[in-house]
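The freezer alarm interrupted the setup, so I double-checked each line after restarting. Inputs confirmed:
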Amino acid sequence: MHEYSIVQSLMAHIEAQARAHRAVAVRRVAIRIGELSGVEPDLLRTAYDLIKERTLCAGAPLDITAVEARWACRACGAGVDRGAVLRCPACDAPARLVSGDEIVLDRLELEVPDV
Amino acid sequence: MCETCGCGDPELVPVEVQEKILSGNERQAAHNRAHFSEHGVLTINLMGSPGAGKTAVLEATARALAHRRLAALAGDLATERDAERLRAAGIPARAITTGSACHLDADLVHRALHHVELARVDYLFIENVGNLVCPAVYDLGQAFNVVALAVTEGEDKPLKYPVMFRKADLVLVTKTDLLPHLDVRLETIVDNLAHVMPEPAVFAVSARTGAGIDDWVAWLERAKAHRRASGVAAHHAHAHGGPHGHTDSHGRVDTHQHG
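Predicted 3D structure, all chains:
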């Protein structure tokens, strides 16, 4: 269960953004989690809900975009099915992961006092 | 109007961030990597389930590489047992006890490095916490990820834990001396690995009989020679003549001197 550590790192990013924008609260948090990132979205949400309480994020829902693993041939770029042997059926070159390992803070909605 | 101070309604500001959540760990890992590079140390992050035989593999490695200078960091939730076993095998080893954390991170490794004389080390083995999930997420600054998978864990582990095996540069299938007693085929394990590793590299080893340890050790020696030849130069962000400070991903500050 490393999802608590991930949320702590997430909070550090959010706090830095909030400071930079002089925000008083965070209204929404949007992140992207890849299927092969090693992070479980449900566990992450549980950890977030627990940790956010005493932070600027207390009232901020967490939007998680799940990203499927996509593999492609390193040589010709043709897609290689996930679950298959990770080599190109045509040129026999090894596949590379195109997407699906991301753990990314996409965007925030910040409440900034009107001055 | 804002109710408290009359300054007007707060504004909702959308901010496009696009930052890796683990960028702090990545920075620290890059820093560790620069230390290893600078001292010509080949660092292996050895991962695997509890009981996969990680410590036994390192004991066998110490016997086979007696002419090299090895060092180890052993991560565990509690106890110094693995570090003690490694020291008994002749590897200077330091325990990193994580408390309840299920993995090592680059900062924990960096702190432990202050007790390792890197200038006098050829190979550093970081024996990660026994766990087939979490350690895969955290870069430690290693040159290679090696995963120990015991034949007793069954043939389907690679398919069940694709994240770990995707990150592996090499898989050591361990305890092969037990194969005659099990309904487990080595070929099936290798075939399953090909579904989660684009370039499966596998050695079947037995720390107990020593079978396959030569292959593993030869791989290590090749990896080290290759690193040296390709001159993976250390471009550290700062000079290392004297003590220097770091602020880690959690905002803790650390000042130290490297030997």
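Quick read of the result. Chain B touches chain A through 42 residues (CB under 8 Å).
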